[in-house]
Amino acid sequence: MDNHLFSNHERAEVLTQALPYIKRYNGKIVVVKYGGNAMINEQLKQQVMEDIVLLWLIGVKIVLVHGGGPEISEMMDKLGKKPTFVNGLRVTDKETVDIVQMVLAGKVNKTLVNLLEMKGGKAMGISGMDGRLIEAKVKNPELGYVGEITKIHINPVLDLLEKGYIPVISTLGCDKKGNAYNINGDTAAAYIAGAMNAERLIMMTDIDGILRDRNDPTTLIRELTTIEAKQLEKDGIISGGMIPKVECCIKAISEGVKNVTIMDGRVSHAILMELLTNEGAGTMVTNEIHKR
Fold first, then answer.
1. Beta-bridge mates of residue 126
2. Which of 104, 102, 101, 96 is nearest to 76 (CA)?
3. What is the average pLDDT score of the chain?
4. What is the pLDDT of residues 250-259, one digit of tens each?
5. Contact 116, 50 (CB under 8 A)
6. How far is CA 17 from CA 10, 11, 86, 125, 140, in A?
7. Residue 287's domain spans which residues?
8. What CATH number is attached to the domain comprising 82?
9. Per-residue pLDDT tens over the stretch 267-277
10. How much is the pLDDT for 109?
């Protein structure tokens, strides 16, 4: 929006209204799971990085956990590697996990670190293999090197936060034998947020949030408890691809995260709306109803 539409007084008023939220999150840990269309669209990517740096500058301890599915698929295509599926799940053989490691821990991770630095932040990229951050085992032998998290060694992330960095984490895991595993990004973010007792976990997706009617954005459920979420799952309102995301929300809260928000990463400045306004964005899942 054109800056000339706002007077200096209006800008100052906006900043003043954000002050209580800035005070609330100053010094608190907020984990952001980032991927999907917000990562593919270059303009959105720039905005998300700006939002993260802004939050970092006002004293929020931001941890960025990222995926990179489209980039992995693109690289596999370039290398002539055809995806194989078992019961709808992608099989990750040794060659594929090598590609995942190359793309996630390399190209995607370092691109995000570089962007954050260009926006004025201080960022450091690591993978779940660094410092054994994400320890994993085979989830299902039929799926190959798809990992199930067995333990989180959170100290590498805490050390980076203590030194004033924005940790940027790619979701790879490893076992004690040195095998690398592809880890679901939402699951990794939930476990990492839980291990730090984070104040918030924000999951950026490609939909508005949890809808009572998946075809009607006006039926957005703005907030619900974990008990209500489980009931909506039983009732079939939470279904399909939303089920694992909600399960990750419940897992994070059970591990000590205060609340989790599922939001549309395609909306400009969605993170700032969620953290620095009364309205919020998306669906917030909590242990108790948290009035925005």
1. 169
2. 96
3. 87
4. 889 988 898 8
5. no
6. 11, 10, 51, 33, 50
7. 197-292
8. 3.40.1160.10
9. 888 888 888 87
10. 96
